[in-house]
Amino acid sequence: MDGEVRVGLIGFGTVGTGVVKILQNNADIIARRVGRKVVLTKIADLDITTDRGVTVLPEKLTTNVQDILDDSQIDIVVELIGGHEPAKRFILQALSSRKGVVTANKALLADYGEEIFEAAFKAQADLGFEASVGGGIPIIRSLTEGLAGNHLTSITGIMNGTSNYILTRMTLEGRDFHDILKEATREGYAEADPSLDIDGIDAAHKLVIMVNLAYGTPVPMSAVYTEGISNISTMDIAFAGELGFTIKLLGIAKFHEQSIEARVHPTLVRTESPIAQVNGVYNAIHVVGDAVGDIVLYGQGAGSLPTASAVVGDIIDLARNRIHGSVSRIPATSFQWESRQPLSIKPMAEIQSRYYLRCMVEDEPSVLSTISGILGKQGISISSVLQKERKHGQSVPLIILTHRSYERGIQAALRDMNALAVVSEPTMLIRIEDNE
Questions:
Q1: Please, is 392 exposed, middle or buried when counting C-beta atoms within 10 Å of its C-beta (0-12, 13-18, 19+)?
Q2: For residue 335, what are the contacts with CB-CB under 8 A and spacing of at least 6?
Q3: Adjacent-strand bridge partners of 236
Q4: How far is CA 393 from CA 33, 99, 385, 398, 424, in A?
Q5: Is 312 exposed, middle or buried (0-12, 13-18, 19+ CB in 10 A)?
Q6: Which of 19-23, 181-185, 212-216, 403-407 has the lowest mean pLDDT?
Q7: 324-333 confidence digits (pLDDT tens)
Q8: 265 forms bridges with which residues in the sheet?
């Protein structure tokens, strides 16, 4: 095996350390797969003194990113610092120099993907971002290669491990959201500022990337309805369980002729379904294709080595391309750049779903008929009702499951229901995904 493929790494944090470990520990098998040695030439980070538990020669460390970007001998640049800037500037500079780029930066690709994809296309440079979605789960490669012959009708899944960890513990332990969040932060499963995870933003970033690849269309983050899990209560988890459901934070994309649904929110799924069985920090993505049918990809959605595994997979892919002169063999956007077609994102008001409603009401004989009348006025039919025991002088929960109806109708009904004197607090709404 003659020659080497040289790699420069920007960012020596948790995932960067994992990348170094894999490149060192698995150097022989990587060389056999690529056909040449893959050599980590330079690592740039603001902190090059902290011990990461891996041995790196001092001359390979730098605090100046330009030492990597200006080095004509470096073939592949790996960006693992996250955020918008300066990451975007580094990636664009590397692409303009026709270096291959590997990134795990989901927020950057979701918000500025079109600019980066266009830069890669114009420079005819490779761009790998498997690690941006699902950690070690090979969903990007599945969408761009393995399932490329399919018309994909839907993508649904658990796309954030932190939220899934919190909901799992709430379900198993019957404990409050805020208590579990505090423990998850102490244990390192949640960030000090967990808002990206618990507010659904991280999952929305990933959904935007997958929709872009699955349907060949740009998707602005602003078009994705996003709702987090902070309002989910142990009461709702318990009632969902009584009705045969489990609550998960899902990213959902569905194809409709010339439009696409794209939404992230807490969802009731059947307890016996594969998605409901995914617990802890694990992710699972369910893809439906017209030829392949149902595919579920399951695995660790974050963490040093799982995410680094996806990064190194991209390094290997780009190294092979470089050796054989087949740069941009697979477009970064999955579809050929000139063949992508803008599709509209269906407004949330136009989507159809089943709904779980928990109304806290005064225990009066006419309450159910009044609420049924409000739902009926909007064309919403009731599938089932769960009414709990009476508590004198207190509000009691009235649980209603609906048949499929339009979001605009359910929201109009909620406004009227919440205005009733017998309703003591805003009605809880959770959407349902099942086969009805």
A1: exposed
A2: 216
A3: none
A4: 71, 70, 22, 15, 12
A5: buried
A6: 181-185
A7: 988 888 999 9
A8: 250
Higher pLDDT, 192 or 320: 320
Q: Is 71 exposed, middle or buried (0-12, 13-18, 19+ CB in 10 A)?
A: middle
Structure tokens, 65: 């990113």
Q: 0.85 cut: is pTM over it? A: yes
Structure tokens at 13: 């944090």
pLDDT of res. 434? 87
Residue-wise pLDDT tens digits, 337-361: 999 988 999 999 999 999 999 999 9
Asked if 350 and 408 touch (Cβ cutoff 8 Å), the reply is yes
- The amino acid at residue 394 is Q
Q: Are 130 and 138 in contact (CB under 8 A)?
A: yes
Of the candidates 289, 238, 317, 319, the one whose C-alpha atom is nearest the C-alpha of residue 40 is 319
Question: What stretch of H or E contains 387?
Answer: strand 382-387
Give the CA angle between residues 367, 368, 372 to the nearest 5°: 120
Q: Read off the tokens for 272.
A: 């016996």
CA atoms of 161 and 176, how far apart (whole Å): 18
**SS3 at position 205:** helix
DSSP 388: P
**DSSP class of residue 347?**
P
- Taking the C-alpha atoms of residue 161 and residue 184, their distance in angstroms, rounded to an integer, is 11
CA distances to 396, 398, 415, 426, 427 from 420, in Å: 15, 14, 9, 10, 11
Q: What are phi and psi of 254, to 5 degrees?
A: -140, 140
Share of residues in the chain with pLDDT > 90 (%):
88
**How open is the CA angle 280-281-286, to the nearest 5 degrees?**
95
Produce one character per residue of 358-389: b if its CB has 16 or more CB atoms within 10 Å, e if not.
bbbbebeeebbeebeebbeebebeeeeeeeee
8 Å CB contact between 382 and 400: yes
In the β-sheet with 4-10, what is the strand arrangement from edge to edge?
Answer: 61-62, 37-44, 4-10, 76-79, 100-103, 127-128
The single residue of 88, 99, 106, 206 carrying the catalytic annotation is 206
Q: Is the peptide bond before 86 cis (omega within 30 degrees of 0)?
A: yes
Copy the structure tokens of residue 237: 């988890």
The helix (H) or strand (E) run that includes residue 41 is strand 37-44
Q: Confirm whether 206 is a catalytic residue.
A: yes
* Beta carbons of 398 and 427 less than 8 angstroms apart: no
